[in-house]
Amino acid sequence: FCVGGNWKMNGDQKSIAEICKTLSGAALDPNTEVVIGCPAIYLMYARNLLPCTVGVAGQNAYKVAKGAFTGEISPSMLKDIGADWVILGHSERRAIFNESDELIAEKAEHALAEGLKVIACIGETLDEREAGKTNEVVARQMCAYAKKVRDWTNVVVAYEPVWAIGTGKTATPEQAQEVHAFLRQWLTDNISKEVSAALRIQYGGSVTAANAKELAKKPDIDGFLVGGASLKPEF
């Protein structure tokens, strides 16, 4: 099981120190991989405060190692300061910053080549779901990754229905499982049975302490990518 906390553009030294203290003292299940997606400016600070059993992820990275890309950070920089993961393709990167499927896939390819593990995000908007296009959209996004990713060992896919992120609307466990099962089949048909069986698919979208247990029982849900709730001690 793999649980990521995506802090997004939240936190300061004081609040991050408190969260890290809570995590350091928590009885975390040793069978659960825990990863914290921290704002870039605080990554090194969080890494130094967290136990080594908790992974640290950049929330984004660019597709090349260095160069004239003002404001960007590279996977090699993330590795240099102790991060071992990066979140790519989050719906906010797609919708607000207009990142294309192709760019996101190129970023994933480069991050993996640099030795980072990747949380590869996919998901449909409310309009797309209401138009019955959920499977079509997530398949298109997966196809872009599949053109660039040769080895899926260090990839976790995060399915996040955009209509359920930060809206308080959560896909029912059945709705989430339905898409996860579709993705599992897509992987079997388009990549391999081995990758389909081994790849972890996280669910993200208004996951809270209250609904996590029920969602976790579904056979094809292998973890969570949690937004706002990951800033709260009870989560």
From TrEMBL:
One GO molecular-function entry: triose-phosphate isomerase activity
Gene Ontology annotations for the cellular component aspect, listed alphabetically: cytosol
Catalytic activity as recorded in UniProt: D-glyceraldehyde 3-phosphate = dihydroxyacetone phosphate
Keywords: Gluconeogenesis, Glycolysis, Isomerase
EC number: 5.3.1.1
Superkingdom of source: Eukaryota
Pfam families: TIM (PF00121)
Top EC category: isomerase
InterPro entries named among the record's database cross-references: Aldolase_TIM, TIM_sf, TrioseP_Isoase_bac/euk, Triosephosphate_isomerase, Triosephosphate_isomerase_AS
Pathway field: Carbohydrate biosynthesis; gluconeogenesis; Carbohydrate degradation; glycolysis; D-glyceraldehyde 3-phosphate from glycerone phosphate: step 1/1
BP terms from Gene Ontology: gluconeogenesis; glyceraldehyde-3-phosphate biosynthetic process; glycerol catabolic process; glycolytic process
Subunit structure: Homodimer.
Protein family per UniProt: Belongs to the triosephosphate isomerase family.
NCBIfam families: tim (TIGR00419)
Protein name, entry field: Triosephosphate isomerase
Native source organism of the sequence: Drosophila pseudoobscura pseudoobscura
